[in-house]
Amino acid sequence: MSSSSQPTLRLQQAPDSSTVEMLHRIFGDVLIPLEELRERYFRNLNEKTFSEAINSGRIQLPVTTIDESVKALRYAHIKHVAALIDMRAYKADESMPRAATDKPEV
Q1: pTM score, two decimals?
Q2: Which range of residues forms the domain containing residue 56?
């Protein structure tokens, strides 16, 4: 079986349940309208640049719709948003310089 015939898996670490719960309290649903997400977490981007960032993969967030209409509202699933938040928090922690006291003893 050729490995090129199989799509690559893009599984990410499962989001922290507390992040999912926090997002559910904020948005009240498992599908978050992209415009509400942009207004809450991406205020520095206008609608066009936010859409471009998602489409280009700069913001790694799968987008879904409820129907196939061109005018259908676009949503992000709560678990994808939570995973994005957790991933960015993890990367921030990894890039943070460690104090000299945090080094393991030899």
Answers
A1: 0.76
A2: 17-93
